[in-house]
């Protein structure tokens, strides 16, 4: 069972009788569709529709929620949620000692009887499970066997291969719309729910079909250059690399410009490396038939 302890992740808890109503009114995802034992992606947006904080959210008991996020943004995330709390009967806290781990692969459901695990909804059913708790369960290997190939590097390689982007590694907070990073594809945006912060912009992008920046999987003829390297074709910038592992990586690019380059037979490069760009096989969007539409 491949697994990794994600030391750069932590848990923010939201509990109390108003917790679900409070979160439903400000977050992008629809909590009515969040089941027990699953972790779904979501975001808190600016009024302009840009992602301020990204996370995975799961239920924690009767009226509680866990929001798994980057450890370096947790304090700011807590402060922002506190600003929205007003008179809502909720309690907010960061679990500084929380353990966040992940297991993946065909046998990742081996610990389903352990209630501290939640299925990561961004991947196929049972493919990835998240662990939240004060300590690792005894079902995982002992500490002296937790190094080697099955660690964070292997986890990020798996994530990259599946086209799953995360802030910090693939994009900067405050600089991306939910569509840019495929939250509309992974269940991270509820298009049938009521209003939430930034909802008007996101809804307009969805209904007008104006989303042009998308996460694609990049494959190089040789090892890819460093993250943030510009991707170009025919002298025109398409976007930039995000996470990279060897010859493979993620890229947020203008898919209309990618299609123009493909139609013209122009090589696409990152640095001096020729690359191919592909839509993740689970995604439902396609390259546009007509290029040139601009983002919101």
Automatic annotation (TrEMBL):
Source organism superkingdom: Bacteria
The entry's keywords: Transit peptide
Pfam families: Beta-barrel_CAF17_C (PF25455)
Keyword Transmembrane: no
Signal peptide, first to last residue: none
PANTHER family reported for this sequence: TRANSFERASE CAF17, MITOCHONDRIAL-RELATED
Protein name: YgfZ/GcvT domain-containing protein
Organism listed in the record: Aquamicrobium soli
